[in-house]
Design a protein that fits this description.
The protein has 193 residues and is α+β, with helices and mostly antiparallel strands. It has one domain. 21% of the residues lie in helices and 26% in strands. A hairpin with a 2-residue loop joins β4 and β5. The protein starts with 21 loop residues before the first strand and ends in a 15-residue tail after the last helix.
């Protein structure tokens, strides 16, 4: 074997533990607009998976197998777009924003333009659902944000974990299903870590 000079400082690959479906306390890092959704960037706070998405992003950046790592701690609230689902999208966004502001005693007027930094540091409960993905002929399972709950309901265990969602017959691509392609492109300077 031929030695190389930075062997002792070279980062080794580690097995990254998959986030299981469940409910977790999350903290909002920031909120920003994409053209289709309000994106709430978050990470898990407390417990075994504290800082999970930050660690996953850092691990993906070190991996040669991941050519374009994306920060996956993103919860999307979709904007109305003239579709039959507009009423549902509006109600879901208003419900989520009201829950976040009430849980954190925030005073934000969402009827006016506002700065996404206003939600930075807000904490909320988030439910994750197992969803099957398919990408370039490979499939697997990942826990994806499903919905928000109050911290009181989270701590009291008053929530249900939705059944896993498989691709089924009408499968979409992973980017369509989970919206990773809509995630804001992040650089080191963008992330608050």
């Amino acid at each position: 074997m031929r030695p190389f000079t930075d062997y002792n400082t070279t980062q080794e690959y580690t097995d990254f533990k998959r986030l299981p479906a469940g409910a977790y306390e999350v903290e909002i890092i920031r909120a920003e607009d994409s053209d289709k959704a309000l994106c709430l960037l978050f990470d898990i706070r407390g417990g075994e998976f504290d800082g999970y998405f930050k660690k996953k992003f850092a691990d993906d950046r070190k991996s040669a197998a991941v050519t374009e790592p994306k920060f996956k701690g993103v919860y999307r609230l979709w904007y109305p777009n003239g579709s039959e689902w507009d009423d549902s999208k509006k109600r879901r966004m208003k419900t989520a924003l009201k829950l976040i502001t009430e849980e954190n005693n925030l005073r934000i007027d969402f009827t006016r333009e506002w700065d996404g930094a206003a939600l930075k540091g807000a904490k909320i409960g988030m439910i994750f659902q197992d969803r099957q993905w398919e990408y370039q002929g490979k499939t697997g399972w990942t826990a994806q944000p499903y919905g928000l709950i109050s911290l009181g309901n989270l701590r009291a265990g008053e929530f249900e974990i939705p059944k896993p969602k498989s691709l089924g017959v009408a499968a979409q691509s992973a980017s369509d299903s989970f919206g990773y392609s809509d995630a804001p492109d992040l650089t080191d300077d963008d992330l608050p870590f």
